[in-house]
C-alpha cells in the first residue's frame, strides 16, 4: 500500500510494514537460508531508502520482487568474486599471502571495482583489469584480446571515465 504524497522514507516504511514478512519468505524460498533471506530483505529496503523517491505503486509486491532480484543478483555476484579471490589466494605461497586486514581491504576494493564497471561490455572490463590488475601494457592487452591498439585505448578510456564519474 502506497501512501500518496508521502516522503520517500514514509512510503518505504509503509512498504516495509506491509510486505517485509512476505519478502523475507520469498527470499528464504530462493536461498534456503533464513538468515541470508532476512539480511537481503533488509538490503532491499535500504536500497529503496537510498532512492530519493518511491514511485506510486499499484503492485507493491511485483516492485519489491524486482528490487529484491537485483539485490539477490548482487549477493550471488559478491559470492562469485569472493570465491575467485580466495581461490587466487590459495595459489600464493604462504609468505606472500596478505594479512587478514589487507585481504578485507582488497576484497572491498574488488567489490567496488565490480560495481563501478558494472554495465560495461565484457571486453572493456577485461582490458581495464588486464591493465590495472595484471599490469599489462596496451600492446600486450591488444595481443591477448586480439584487438587493435586504438581499441584498447578506447576501452581503457571508457572504463576510466566510468570510474572517474561514478558516484
Give me some keywords for this one:
single chain, Rna Polymerase Sigma Factor, Chain: A, globular, 2 domains, disordered N terminus
List the helices and strands and how they pair.
Layout: H1 8-31, H2 34-50, H3 60-91, H4 100-117, H5 122-132, H6 138-145, H7 149-165
Helix pairs in contact: 1-2, 1-3, 2-3, 5-6, 5-7, 6-7
Radius of gyration over C-alpha positions, nearest whole angstrom: 20 Å
The average pLDDT value, as a whole number, equals 88
Low-confidence spans: 1-6
Shape: globular
Question: What sequence of helices (H) and strands (E) makes up the elements?
Answer: HHHHHHH
Kindly report how far apart the N and C termini lie. Answer: 31 Å
What count of helical segments does DSSP give?
7
> How much helicity do the residues have?
over 70%
Give the strand tally: 0
Largest sheet: none
CATH class of the largest domain: Mainly Alpha
Q: Approximately what portion of the residues adopt beta-strand conformation?
A: under 5%
Enter the CATH topology name of the largest domain. Answer: Rna Polymerase Sigma Factor, Chain: A
The overall number of domains is: 2
Helix vs. strand class: mainly alpha
At CATH's second level, what is the architecture of the largest domain? Answer: Orthogonal Bundle
Amino acid at each position: 500500500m502506497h501512501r500518496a504524497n508521502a516522503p520517500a522514507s514514509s512510503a518505504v516504511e509503509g512498504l516495509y510494514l506491509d510486505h517485509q514478512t512476505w519478502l523475507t519468505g520469498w527470499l528464504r524460498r530462493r536461498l534456503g537460508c533464513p538468515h541470508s533471506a532476512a539480511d537481503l530483505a533488509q538490503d532491499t529496503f535500504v536500497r529503496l531508502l537510498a532512492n530519493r523517491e518511491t514511485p506510486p505503486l499499484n503492485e507493491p509486491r511485483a516492485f519489491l520482487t524486482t528490487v529484491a532480484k537485483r539485490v539477490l543478483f548482487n549477493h550471488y555476484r559478491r559470492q562469485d568474486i569472493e570465491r575467485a579471490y580466495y581461490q587466487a589466494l590459495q595459489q600464493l605461497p604462504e609468505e606472500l599471502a596478505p594479512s587478514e586486514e589487507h585481504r578485507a581491504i582488497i576484497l572491498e576494493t574488488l567489490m567496488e571495482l565490480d560495481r563501478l564497471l558494472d554495465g560495461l561490455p565484457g571486453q572493456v572490463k577485461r582490458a581495464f583489469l588486464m591493465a590495472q590488475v595484471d599490469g599489462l601494457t596496451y600492446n600486450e592487452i591488444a595481443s591477448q584480446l586480439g584487438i587493435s591498439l586504438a581499441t584498447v585505448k578506447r576501452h581503457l578510456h571508457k572504463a576510466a571515465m566510468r570510474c572517474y564519474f561514478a558516484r
